[in-house]
Known about the structure:
- The complex is a heterodimer of chains A (244) and B (249).
- With 244 residues, chain A is an alpha/beta fold.
- Chain A has helices at 46-54, 85-92, 99-112, 128-141, 158-174, 186-192, 223-237, and strands at 8-17, 20-30, 35-39, 61-66, 70-73, 146-150, 178-183, 195-199, 206-211.
- Chain A has a six-stranded mixed beta sheet with strand order 5-6-7-3-8-9, with helices on both faces.
- Chain B has 249 residues and is mainly α.
- Chain B has a single domain, classed as Orthogonal Bundle (MetI-like fold), CATH 1.10.3720.
- The longest helix of chain B has 35 residues, at 157-191.
- The mean pLDDT of chain B is 91.
- At the A-B interface, strand 5 of A face helix 7 and helix 8 of B.
Amino acid sequence: MTADLPLVELRAVGFAYGATPVLTDVDLTIARGELVVCVGPSGAGKTTLIGLLEGHLRPTSGELIRRGASRTIHQDGGLFPWLTVRDNVAAGLPRALAATDRGHRVDEWLDIIGLREFADHYPRQLSGGMRQRVELARALAGETDLLLLDEPLGALDYQTRAAMRRELIATLARRPRTVVLVTHDLEEAIELADRVVVLSARPARVRRILPITTARPRRRADPALIALEASLEDELTAPAGGGS
Amino acid sequence: MHRLLPLLTGAILLAAWALISALGGFPPATVPPPLDVVHGFVEELGSGRLPDDIVASLYRVGFAFTLSVILAVPLGLVVGRVRLVRAALLPWINFFRSLSPIAWIPFAIIWFGIGDAPAMFIIVMAVSFQLVLATAAAAAAVPQVYYRVAADLGYGRLETLTRITLPAILPQLSTALRVAIGVAWMVVVAAEMLGVHSGLGFLISDGRNALRMDLVVVGMITIGLIGIGLDALFARIARIPSVRWGFER
């Protein structure tokens, strides 16, 4: 019966660090299976939004309902450096999974991310893109409903970012999940999102929600997408409507 | 070549010592000549006293060090992770860390009498407080993101401690343990000055009382060599991959 209810609902959610408001009056509903990308100027409270969705932070006003567990991939990388690739992925498996199935399940994930032969390496011995793939596998291995991504590709070079976006799409096609991703990269938003949520500068509110219906894989040269990106760019650089 | 270099510098120091002694360069009875020390070694080994002293000292240091780790590391974890405990205890841990272990000798005798206990007590006092501080500093510096991941993974308090905090601090902790075993071994001389009749520290104070400077040097050389061995052992522990997390490729 909860299956048809939205996975996440934010109603007039606000958050302040002490006296500094970061988010005000955010209304957002996220359906199961959706890929929502939040964009906004830097310092607009995107990471705070992830913290709220994650449950690490609690709204200081309004109401946030999350129906199901989540896993987060953090901006600064949360792989455990003291564990090998294999053990990091294993740490992400559902706790209830029987011990006999765990090794096999880890192998499956290592195959999906193509890092089977790096199973016994430590994170430090991998490239940035490889580490990101391990994080993705660990987060998805938990079989949670919601996947939260906080600028997951921010630390990568341009080529690797593009490759990782394709990989994210491909992996999600095999293991569907509801995803909320925050980024300042409009190209990333356009390529990945079912809906783009545009946040204003701090204190952030939702300026616009933009559905993108173009089928994936999306070609960067698609004129419709280029026009979308341009309009998003205008939106982000325009002064906030209403003053303050 | 690099492995032989220490032996070469040792040989040069030994030669200089022998030469100055032979030429009468040291005032009488201040520095024993090397040959006297060799005789001292032969005497102590022949009587079986030196091996006994080594075992006695290693036992006391080993026991006291282990006890210190058992007491100090858990306390350090709590001090490092719980702000209230840190505020309450940190200044006092610093206070006690500043006290020379020699200052505890009168209390050691009054509280523990004679035997192994007072010596072990002094070693524990010398090692524990700095070990608490080192553990606390490492635990406080573990990046917050790991704890957020732990919450996602559903770890409870104990699991967070054993699966996040402990492995995260192992590199710093292994270095702190290496320093601590060095201090524990260094303090053995002071710890065995009173209340015991065995151990390398006793050998030195006994040699001093009998004006046998050769035996004092025998004790010093033995302590120094075993110190090198203990340090090498703990350096090896620090290189285990799950401790170093593959810093070495």
